[in-house]
Design goal:
24 strands, globular, alpha+beta, Glutaredoxin, 29 helices, 790 residues, four-stranded mixed beta sheet, single chain, five-stranded mixed beta sheet
Length: 790
């Protein structure tokens, strides 16, 4: 028996050779193969017993991936496939043995990656074919987006579709010759089985290698041609009306009943919100402004009420499989939480609706509890799949999150919503969250019958309607719903947790840094700002090489929960720089601490040196690398915005703050390089379209003098932060003559801090600044005047 074991359990690492269960009372609690903060009901924290339960994989051999740190690669460390990580050892072996390379790319929370692993990579017969005929390489797409991007471009061009797992066959010189995504293990429904594909390609290679080399040369030529994105020369002017086309295209795609910009499946697409909130901020009273705000508010509310939002344990899932935002793909990604935090913060600032404030706190609660390392960094994701029970042989999608009617009734049916009432918490929960006796999941959204008789909680009505139905006050309903959430959340902790991908990615930490900074500005909660500063400190300490001035792509936990790196750390990519720079600028505007602006400026200079295309403008996604066939530029904002979209705004903001005209010129070249896309299909680049406003409208620069923490400064900042200001650039003239603003910005140097330290504010546009004002109402007039002039 062990007492006080909880702290040790938090940092204990378990490899797939065994499962560890902690027993408390009559319940078992699994410590999954990748570490996770252990959360147990208080009643079970008195004393624990540790049991080791061997798993089927314990007798299997270990391959090279066991030496890696990526959770995804470690998941495959006990496959019978002789996997190599991406690197020279594998390439040299392919050349030496004269074999094709089979490249498999995925990520640790990918449902279909798990399926293909179970069906094919754990299959001894298929593994034998792979080992005898190919050099097999596993890549974590989140760790190596450069590899993923090149070969996904090939797969999409050759097959018309993409996705993960991605399966590609390469010559020993890394040229792709065939590929696809998921393959079933055997021929089925007219689709070739993986064993058939392997055998066929292997035979063709042995019979006619020249055919592969010829084909590969043609494919590479096509990829090189298409990778240029048909960009312009970086000099042409973009129409000032191009943003209207983006608005028209989004309006046409908008789904009015449930919100969003597609039918099914539905993705959050935060880049769309960023653009639409900018349209609203430019002219809130215009038809375009009102329409843009309406699309944002409706979609965000429907998402928050839908099943894509975890009503019990907070946070948002990756996407919904249906048009109602009801049945999600249950994985939760850090990059979604960070971007949606910005979107809900903008919605709260625009509407002052407390509903949005609650969702801001909801996302922060989830990330702080389930995706945070103790020293400040953020983990990548939680899996969609988990075991339905500790003795279950197979994981199911959503098992951790869904509920049967019987479960809910047993947990809540004996508890009344208030003293003397015959209405139980179960009655209230079943009505409010649409919990049905036979489950509420449409069978068409459950092709594998994994959600049969299960309920995904969704709010079809409102708290007001629920109050009216049960004769309760709104306060009583809110209190009852809070009690329901607490009871169900505690019950959920008795279930096997989904796998946690505890890899920490610089780009995604940057997105979360922006989210926290914008959330602080929206709700003025100092604990949120403190959390953002801890996150930035973590990035500086663990994901930045001060000697070279470069970012690292990832860092990891070791067996003791300490931060570690692989032997040859992966250098940061362009999106790591772009997203971290934006996060640092946002943190500077939230905190007033110039050190973050200084670091952002340093990183921008390094990004320009490593990734800028001196010939055609814009940023390559990768730096020069002998193992990467093509240097590509992303031309579409997707689940994450492109580095070029974010960088365009970063350049304009830094230019305005630091009076660096060369950065504005670079932004103009970047945007002009994408001129054709921005004018023809701007809906593919909504984030970049939003960046256009900074160029075409000229930023609204607001400078606050004096101590940013003083009461006077805080009153002025509250006025600034009370509205969305298009192209806002916020600076602090705090009297620190060693600060970067005083060194770089001659205008700010002239903005004297008063002798008594009292705060004042200037509003500047088109290189012309107002006289200083000291009262919020005076500042309000200046800001309203500037807004109405756009």
């Amino acid at each position: 028996m062990f007492c006080g074991i909880l702290q040790a359990a938090r940092t204990f690492r378990v490899y797939p050779a065994a499962s560890i269960f902690i027993k408390g009372g009559s319940s078992y609690h699994n410590l999954p193969s990748c570490r996770h903060n252990l959360q147990l009901p208080a009643a079970h924290l008195k004393c624990f017993k540790i049991e080791l339960r061997p798993m089927a994989t314990s007798t299997k051999s270990t391959n090279r991936l066991a030496k890696e740190k990526s959770p995804y690669l470690l998941q495959h460390a006990h496959n019978p496939v002789d996997w190599y990580p991406w690197g020279e050892e594998a390439f040299e072996e392919a050349r030496k043995q004269d074999k094709l390379i089979f490249l498999s790319v995925g990520y640790s929370t990918c449902h279909w990656c798990h399926v293909m692993e179970h069906e094919s990579f754990e299959n001894e017969e298929i593994a034998k074919i792979m080992n005898e005929n190919f050099i097999n390489i596993k890549v974590d797409r989140e760790e190596r987006p450069d590899v993923d991007k090149v070969y996904m471009t090939f797969v999409q061009a050759s097959s018309g579709r993409g996705g993960w797992p991605m399966s590609v066959f390469l010559t020993p010189d890394l040229v792709p010759v065939a590929g696809g995504t998921y393959f079933p293990p055997k021929n089925t429904f007219g689709r070739p089985g993986f064993d058939t594909v392997l055998t066929s390609i292997s035979n063709q290679w042995k019979e006619n290698k020249q055919k592969f080399f010829d084909s590969g040369s043609k494919i590479l030529e096509i990829l090189e041609r298409t990778s240029k994105l048909e960009l312009n020369d970086g000099q042409s002017q973009i129409s000032s009306e191009s943003w209207k086309k983006c608005l028209q295209q989004l309006s046409k795609a908008f789904e009015h009943q449930y919100g969003g910009f597609s039918k099914a499946p539905k993705f959050p697409q935060p880049s769309n919100f960023n653009f639409l909130f900018q349209v609203y901020a430019r002219n809130p009273e215009s038809v375009e402004g009102k329409s843009a705000l309406s699309m944002c508010v409706h979609t965000l509310k429907m998402m928050a009420k839908g099943g894509i939002h975890d009503h019990i344990s907070q946070g948002f899932a990756r996407y919904s499989t249906d048009e109602k935002w009801h049945v999600p793909h249950f994985e939760k990604m850090l990059y979604d939480q960070g971007q949606l935090l910005v979107s809900f913060s903008q919605a709260y600032v625009a509407t002052k609706d407390e509903f949005f404030r609650e969702i801001i706190l909801d996302i922060i609660t989830y990330v702080n509890r389930d995706l945070s390392h103790a020293t400040g960094g953020f983990f990548s994701a939680e899996d969609a799949d988990s075991l339905p029970g500790f003795d279950s042989p197979k994981k199911k999608e959503g098992a951790f999150c869904v509920w049967t009617n019987e479960e809910v009734d047993s947990l809540l049916g004996s508890k009344s919503v208030k003293e003397g009432s015959s209405v139980t918490l179960s009655d209230l929960a079943c009505h409010h969250f649409d919990i049905q006796p036979d489950g509420n999941v449409n069978p068409y959204q459950d092709p594998h019958d994994e959600l049969k008789n299960q309920n995904v909680l969704i709010v079809n009505g409102s708290e007001e309607e629920t109050s009216e139905k049960f004769g309760l006050t709104l306060a009583e309903t809110k209190a009852a719903l809070k009690q329901i959430q607490s009871i169900l959340h505690e019950a959920r902790q008795n279930r096997p947790r989904p796998h946690l991908d505890d890899k920490m990615v610089a780009a995604w930490n940057g997105l979360m840094l922006s989210g926290l900074s914008k959330a602080y500005e929206a709700i003025c909660d100092e604990t949120v700002l403190d959390r953002a500063i801890r996150a930035a400190d973590f990035l500086k300490e663990h994901m930045y090489n001060e000697t070279t001035g470069t970012l690292l792509r990832c860092c990891y936990q070791d067996e003791k929960g300490n931060i570690s790196q692989i032997n040859e750390p992966i250098s940061g990519f362009a999106d790591d720089y772009a997203f971290v720079i934006r996060g640092l600028i946002d943190l500077y505007e939230a905190s007033g601490q110039s050190r973050w602006l200084t670091w952002a400026n340093d990183l921008q200079e390094k990004q320009d040196k490593l990734f800028w295309d001196n010939e055609n403008a814009g940023y390559f996604s990768t730096a020069q690398n002998s193992h990467i066939l093509l240097r590509l530029k992303d031309g579409q904002d997707g689940a994450e915005p492109t580095c070029n979209s974010v960088s365009a705004a970063n350049l304009m903001r830094l230019s305005g703050m630091l009076e660096r005209d060369e950065l504005e010129e670079k932004a103009i070249k970047l945007l002009s390089a994408f001129k054709e896309r921005l004018e023809k299909i701007p809906v593919a680049l909504p984030e970049m379209s939003a960046s256009l406003f900074l160029l075409q409208d000229s930023p609204t620069q607001v400078v606050v003098t004096g101590d940013p923490k003083s009461e006077g400064a805080q009153n002025l900042l509250a006025e600034i932060r009370s509205r969305l200001i298009p192209g806002r650039v916020l600076g602090f003239a705090d009297g620190d003559e060693d600060g970067i603003l005083y060194q770089r910005n001659a205008t700010i140097k002239k903005m004297k801090v008063s002798k008594d330290g009292s705060a004042s504010a200037y509003v500047c546009r088109n290189h012309t600044c107002s006289l200083p004002v000291t009262k919020p109402e005076q500042l309000r007039g200046l800001l309203d005047e500037r807004l109405s002039s756009k």
